[in-house]
Structure prediction request, 550 residues.
Amino acid sequence: MDRLFRDRGGTVLRLIAVCLALAAAVGGSVACAPPVPPPVVEEATREGATLAIEHFSIIDGTTWSGAHDRAGKRIAEKYPNVEYVYREEVGPDATVPYAKELIADGASIVAGNAEFMGLPLKDIADEYPDVFFASVIASDLVTKRNFIRYFPRQYQALYLEGLIAAALTESGNIGIVSAFPCVQVGRRQNGFYLGILDGAKLLGKDISVYVKYVGDWYLPSEERDIAKTLISQYGVDVLTQQTDSGSPLDVAQEEAIWFVGKDMDIVGYYGWSSLDTVAVSFDTRWEVLYDRIVSDWLAGEESPETVLYLGMDDTMVLADGTEVSTVDIMNDNKVGVEAISPQALPSIPKEIVDLVDQRRGQMMKGEWDPFTEHAFVSNGTGFELEGLSIPDAGTVVKPAGEVPTSEWLLSKFNFDLEGMTILEQSEHGFLRCLRVESCRRMILAAVRLPSLKVNCLRGGGLTPPRAARLCICSRAGAESGRNGILQATVPASSTSGPAHWPVCSRPASGPTQRSQSPFVSACDTRTWRPDSAPRGADVSNPRHEVYGSS
Prediction:
């Protein structure tokens, strides 16, 4: 800066000298003024921000919304000029009304912590050009200038968990209680599986991995049943989950087998179970992603980065000076290899502990990634996406050493890796409404199974293979299932006759225990008849697709 000023000063003196010389030459005076320096353009900054997070579930006792809530609080602690506000149990029909209310109250950043209820924010992004909107990514990657999509590279920490699980199993059988086939679930399971493969190879073990789907994120009783089945019928002695209830953990504790946690440090943060059961967990620090968004806002950025897919090499410094990665293995408030339960450690060979430490360090430096290192060979199982079928078994979709794009990982990874055993789903089948928008679209299709379990989650979703297709969303469903859930078991003949529908409603007081559903805790049974069908539904033609008003 001093040099800049000196250069400018020298220019001014030279110009004055020229002016004096001209004046002397013509015998008169010449009006001569120094040039006006160009204006200094300062980067626009904003004095403060209000971060508003819309949570799809309750916060207390949940690892997903609980982690997002912790992130919001940590952001507010770091920035004295940032406030964190939130709404709980937000369905897609309430996303926009809540957002407008929050904006009217001063929110400058509004985020939805699940895709199915976060996507509606894109519809008002143009209406509020000075507000940042954001939504978690499940598989849709739509963005706008001020509509940001974000997700952490959890598969990196899951890979490390897989190494540990491979060392712990004595039976050679590892089980996953999983939600339903979708990109997010498959990507995380595949990351865990690659860790198991590397661990098994290093130790010379033959390990089988069994996956059984529940049908949704939060079905405690079904999760318990599947966990029990994996242990009793498949000899599983290490259990993990891609669901959200505490039932699999409870079963692992009851059966005295090892459990591998997800999303948060469940022992250290919530005090769930103990190190006698939880061998390791991984912790998701959503605050690293929110920090990028808030920083861009405060800096006055008009065109922020719109797809954030951050991993272990992306960090932030918390208010107390602690530097945290986006994801990391964590257990009882310890990170890295120290996160491995002291009770589990004697069962884990030193070469596995060293490999966990090595790979973690490499990923934190951005030098190594399991999805780059390994080939992606299709198991022939998975789920179809629009315009994208499941690759045939044995197909090498990505060779070893090739870096998969973020877009592909986030939206097109639709198959299981070779060697996984995907168990059949329950006989009832399962369906999530596909692209149901605010319960305005109603779908009636053929019932192909003797009975059908319906879960209508007023938002986006995927239809797992072999599931019967029946989903009804309507004003009645919106009113009786205020939290967006409508479940039922329906005989195939019910399309032409009465059927009993358990219509679920919001409990009088919100659940606080992890063993309770964040969605439903009270149901009553009503009779659904053709004369009480949702408005516009043609019950005489079960294949008819109709559109009703909400």
